[in-house]
C-alpha cells in the first residue's frame, strides 16, 4: 500500500507526538512492503527524522504550525487546511493515516482513512479541556468531520475504545486498538550517580526522596490534588519526600491550570518541598524516574496514561487514576484510585513512602507489565487497521 500520513504532530511534545513518532518508526520497520508518504509543515520538518527508501516527505507550507494552531483555544485557517488537502489529493494513495484527530484536516472524499482518537476526554469534560465556547464548537465540528471520513477509528486501549464508542457514538465494530508502549530509552537506570545527578538538577536536596508527576498542567490532570496529598505527607514527616513536577512550563498549546497549581502550593505552604523541573529530556527523565518513590497520575481520565507506563518501564510503581486502562495494563504495579479522591491519594502516597518492601514489590510488578508492551505490536495493529480500511 501507499500510505499517506499526517505527520504534522511529529513536533508535538506531549503524548500525541510521542505516539506518532514511536508508532510510525515501528510501522516502517514492520510494514516492509508498504510505502509511507508523510505530510509535514515546516516546524515538523525540522525535527522529522524518519527516513528510508520507503519513506517520502512532503512539506506543506502553513501560516501557523498545526502543533500550535490546533490548540485548546486556537483554530487552523481554512487556507492552511486547504493546502494540506490539496497536497494529499495530488498523491496516489491507497489509504490515509492520522495519528491524532488533534491535527485533523479534511481529506479528499474518496480516500480511505484511519484516524486516531486517543480518548474522549475533551468531549466528556469540555470545561476541563477547552477554555471557551468557541473552542468547544471548533472541537465538535472537527470531531464530527473526522468521524465522517474515518472508515476505521483507531484508539490506544480497550478503555479508550469503550469511551469513544459510548461518548461519540462510534459503533464498536468500527474501532481498532493499537496499545502504546514505553520508548526504548525508558529502562531502569544502571547508575546511582546518574540518578543522584538528575535529582540534583531537578532541585531535589541530597538525602531526600521524591515523587514525580510527568505531563501537562491541565485541569483534568488534577495536579492540584497531588499538591494537597503531598502536603499531608509534609505535615507528617520531619524529612518528607519532595514533589517534582515535570512538564513544559510554556509553549503548551493545551488548556493550562499552572497558576491554580501554584496557588494551591502557596495555600498548602509546601513551596520548599515542591520543585518545578520544567521540560526534561528522555535521557534525563529516565534517571529521574528510576530514583522516584512513584509516578503520580490522578487524572479525571486517561485514554492510555503513557507517563505511567514509561515510569513503570524504569522500574517505578505508579499511583494512578482508575479511570484509565492502567489498572489492567499495570496490574500489580501500582495503587489505583478514583479521580478527586484526595484522601485515597494521600494514603497511597504515604503507603509507598513508608513501606519500602511494599514499594519494591509494586516496582517489580510495574516493570514486568511494562516490558510486556511493545510498539511493534502496536504497529502491527495499526497496519492491520489500514489494510482493512483500504480493502
Which key phrases capture this entry?
single chain; 391 residues; Rossmann fold; 2 domains; 7-stranded parallel β-sheet; 3-stranded parallel β-sheet
Architecture blueprint of SSEs:
Layout: E1 2-6, H1 15-30, E2 35-40, H2 42-47, E3 55-59, H3 66-69, H4 78-89, E4 95-98, E5 113-116, H5 121-124, H6 126-129, H7 133-149, E6 152-155, H8 158-168, E7 175-177, H9 192-201, E8 210-214, H10 223-236, E9 242-246, H11 258-268, E10 274-278, H12 282-290, E11 295-297, H13 306-313, E12 318-321, H14 326-329, E13 334-337, H15 342-354, H16 356-371, H17 375-390
Parallel strand pairs: 1-2, 1-4, 2-3, 4-5, 5-6, 6-7, 8-9, 9-10, 11-12, 12-13
What does this structure look like?
With 391 residues, this protein is an alpha/beta fold. It has two domains: 2-181 and 374-390, 3-Layer(aba) Sandwich (Rossmann fold); 192-371, Rossmann fold, CATH 3.40.50.2000. 45% of the residues lie in helices and 15% in strands. The strands form three sheets. The chain has a seven-stranded parallel sheet with strand order 3-2-1-4-5-6-7, sandwiched between helices. Strands 8-9-10 form a three-stranded parallel sheet, with helices on one face. Helix 8 links the parallel strand 6 (152-155) and strand 7 (175-177). Helix 9 packs across helix 12 (282-290) and helix 13 packs across helix 16. The longest helix is centred in the middle third of the chain and has 17 residues, at 133-149. The radius of gyration is 21 Å and the shape is globular. The termini are close together.
Amino acid at each position: 500500500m501507499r500510505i499517506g500520513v499526517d505527520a504534522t504532530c511529529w513536533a508535538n511534545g506531549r503524548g500525541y507526538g510521542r505516539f506518532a513518532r514511536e508508532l510510525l518508526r515501528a510501522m516502517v520497520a514492520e510494514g516492509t512492503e508498504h510505502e509511507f508518504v508523510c505530510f509535514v509543515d515546516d516546524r515538523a520538518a525540522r525535527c522529522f527524522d524518519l527516513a528510508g527508501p520507503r519513506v517520502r516527505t512532503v512539506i506543506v507550507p502553513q501560516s501557523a504550525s498545526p502543533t500550535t494552531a490546533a490548540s485548546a483555544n486556537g483554530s487552523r485557517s481554512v487556507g492552511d487546511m486547504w493546502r494540506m488537502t490539496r497536497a494529499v489529493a495530488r498523491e496516489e494513495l491507497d489509504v490515509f493515516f492520522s495519528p491524532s484527530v488533534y491535527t485533523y484536516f479534511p481529506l479528499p472524499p474518496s480516500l480511505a482513512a484511519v484516524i486516531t482518537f486517543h480518548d474522549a476526554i475533551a468531549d466528556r469534560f469540555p470545561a476541563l479541556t477547552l477554555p471557551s465556547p468557541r473552542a468547544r464548537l471548533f472541537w465538535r465540528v472537527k470531531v464530527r468531520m473526522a468521524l465522517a471520513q474515518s472508515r476505521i477509528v483507531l484508539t490506544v486501549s480497550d478503555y479508550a475504545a469503550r469511551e469513544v464508542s459510548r461518548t461519540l457514538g462510534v459503533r464498536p465494530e468500527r474501532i481498532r486498538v493499537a496499545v502504546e508502549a514505553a520508548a526504548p530509552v525508558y529502562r531502569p537506570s544502571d547508575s546511582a550517580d546518574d540518578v543522584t545527578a538528575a535529582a540534583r538538577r531537578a532541585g531535589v536536596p541530597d538525602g531526600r526522596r521524591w515523587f514525580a508527576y510527568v505531563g501537562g498542567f491541565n485541569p483534568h490532570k488534577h495536579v492540584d490534588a497531588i499538591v494537597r496529598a503531598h502536603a499531608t505527607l509534609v505535615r507528617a514527616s520531619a524529612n518528607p519526600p519532595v514533589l517534582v513536577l515535570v512538564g513544559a512550563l510554556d509553549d503548551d498549546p493545551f488548556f493550562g491550570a499552572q497558576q491554580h497549581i501554584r496557588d494551591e502550593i502557596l495555600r498548602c505552604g509546601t513551596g520548599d518541598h515542591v520543585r518545578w523541573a520544567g521540560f526534561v529530556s528522555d535521557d534525563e527523565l529516565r534517571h529521574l524516574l528510576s530514583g522516584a518513590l512513584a509516578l503520580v497520575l490522578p487524572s479525571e481520565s486517561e485514554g492510555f496514561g503513557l507517563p505511567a507506563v514509561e515510569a513503570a518501564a524504569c522500574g517505578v510503581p505508579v499511583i494512578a487514576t482508575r479511570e484509565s486502562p492502567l489498572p489492567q495494563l499495570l496490574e500489580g504495579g501500582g495503587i489505583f484510585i478514583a479521580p478527586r479522591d484526595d484522601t485515597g491519594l494521600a494514603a497511597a502516597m504515604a503507603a509507598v513512602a513508608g513501606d519500602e518492601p511494599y514499594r519494591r514489590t509494586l516496582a517489580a510488578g510495574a516493570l514486568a507489565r511494562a516490558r510486556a508492551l511493545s510498539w511493534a505490536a502496536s504497529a502491527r495493529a495499526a497496519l492491520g487497521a489500514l489494510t482493512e480500511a483500504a480493502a
